[in-house]
Amino acid sequence: MCFENVIAEFFYLRKRLQEWGKQHLRSYPWRFSNDPYEVLLAEFFLRRTGPKQVLSIYDEFFKTFPDFETIIKGDKNLLDFLLHKLGLHIRKKQLIEMVEYILLTFEGQIPCRRSLLLRIPGVGSYIASIFRCSICECLDPPLDANTVRIVGRFFNFPINDSSRRNKKFRNALTLLMEPDQPRFYAYCLIDLGSIVCKPHKPNCLNCPLNPACCYAVNILS
Ligand code: SF4
């Protein structure tokens, strides 16, 4: 039998997930930064490119462009070069729109309210969620391919193209996150989906969620 929706059961699973995260969480610099600008920009880059590429320009980018103003007024050639290295040169226009919007509308202070974040050009539901978890200490489960897959398998929900916008998936993912550590659990679940609960051949035997996961109960029993 898979999960029974008992509070104590999810408490136990979150503890297991926490232990897994302490050993396996990937330690990228943006995951430890408390600078809203740095976190937002890093997550913006990551939507279209991988962590390795972002790491390759990370220090140089934030040293040269330490805030929103420097993106507008700084070295355009270097900005082009770094975005090109990320393969994001075609998104430069959107980056500039995002920066101008934040400067004009919020005087450079990125808001925590979800509805305001979603008005910023280039900020979608996932970026808004991960920003709120990381900077605002809000429990706002980030739904991406990895976390949707975990929720679908764990709760036995059918997955389709709209699952990332599905409230049922958001609410279910919330059950797997400790409310007072949203950032840690958000990254735990993202990494668990990438390292363990892979699209093909999930490693259920070594997954901290296996005691109550519907998918695992079916294949391991
Ligand atoms: S037990 Fe298996 S299917 Fe369930 S979340 Fe873990 S890896 Fe995914």
Automatic annotation (TrEMBL):
Q: Which cofactor does it need?
A: [4Fe-4S] cluster
Tell me the SUPFAM superfamilies matching this sequence: DNA-glycosylase
Which GO annotations describe the biological process of this protein? base-excision repair; mismatch repair
Taxonomically, which superkingdom?
Bacteria
Q: Name one GO molecular function term.
A: purine-specific mismatch base pair DNA N-glycosylase activity
Ranges where the HhH-GPD domain occurs: 45-195
Keyword terms of this UniProt record: DNA damage, DNA repair, Glycosidase, Hydrolase, Iron, Iron-sulfur, Metal-binding
- Tell me which PANTHER family the record gives: ADENINE DNA GLYCOSYLASE
The Swiss-Prot or TrEMBL record describes its family as follows: Belongs to the Nth/MutY family.
Query: What is the annotated role of this protein in its UniProt record?
Result: Adenine glycosylase active on G-A mispairs. MutY also corrects error-prone DNA synthesis past GO lesions which are due to the oxidatively damaged form of guanine: 7,8-dihydro-8-oxoguanine (8-oxo-dGTP).
Protein's name according to its UniProt entry = A/G-specific DNA-adenine glycosylase
Per the UniProt record, the source organism is Thermovibrio guaymasensis
